[in-house]
Amino acid sequence: MDPLTDTRWRQSTVTQGERLTQCDTQISWVWRDDRSGHTCGDFRIASPSPADTCPTGPVSITANAYRDFHREYAGGDSVALVPYDPAWPDEFERFTAWLSANLGPAVIGRTEHIGSTAIPGMPAKPVIDVMAQVPDWEQARPAIIPRLNLPEWEYWWYDDHMMFIKRDGFMGRRTHHIHMAPSGSKLWERVAFRDYLRAHPGVASAYAALKTRLADAHEGDREEYTQAKGAFVRETTKRAMAWSGTSH
After folding, report:
1. How crowded is the C-beta side of 131, counted as CA atoms within 13 Å?
2. In a structure prediction context, what are the per-residue pLDDT tens digits for the chain, which is 248 residues long?
């Protein structure tokens, strides 16, 4: 069966509790693009099977990652902080210029350097985080996904934004994260967080110390590290939004 032309997926394994069950599923493309040489797009999975064996109703999927399941990504899921590099802002400018040239101003609008690499003196994972404004999802997704659908890229769709991860090659180390969201998205609060830490060195120092401590405690688990920072980030973001006088 060719999954690109045959819309039937059979014998999909589903985990429910501690038992594995088998169910029939059907896939249909919401939209697809073959121009890049790598078929991509959004597809929808509908399961007609009983509720006690498989999820019911349609499920939309938008995610893609090229990988070899016989090896790990370079760096794995580890947390490795490095000292602040003054070249990071220049890399942000270079990368966003490339992004705008490849996607076009009608697709990518305002861009901001966020995350720890955007805060002078802050130790960070050496990954450039970019916030990018998109006009709306109906226009942006079919325009962006085919152009960034390559072995060194992966993307993930969330309720309110898309995240693209760029690596330094197939299965390589992360080099850039792009967080795409329309104007007014809550995600843009990350810009206020950045500005607040830039303007308040004492808070930035406390954050640096917390990051260093948590990186040691959760060296092998990136998600645990991120969650452990959550309370500090949320509280500081509240203060940052009040300080900046904005809602998003």
Report:
1. 22
2. 444 455 444 444 444 444 445 555 567 788 888 776 677 887 777 655 555 555 555 666 678 888 888 888 887 778 999 999 999 999 999 999 999 999 998 899 999 999 999 999 999 999 999 999 998 877 888 889 888 888 999 998 877 788 999 999 999 999 999 999 999 899 999 999 999 999 999 999 999 999 999 999 998 888 999 999 999 999 999 999 999 986 44
Cβ 31 vs Cβ 142: under 8 Å: yes
Look at residue 118 and give its three-state secondary structure.
Answer: helix
Beta bridge partners of 9: 25
The pTM for the full model equals 0.82
DSSP assignment of 50-100 equals -TTTS--EEEEE-EEE---TTSPPTTTT----B---TTHHHHHHHHHHHHH
Rounded to 5 degrees, φ, ψ at 195 are: -65, -35
CA dist., res. 76 & res. 57, Å (int): 35
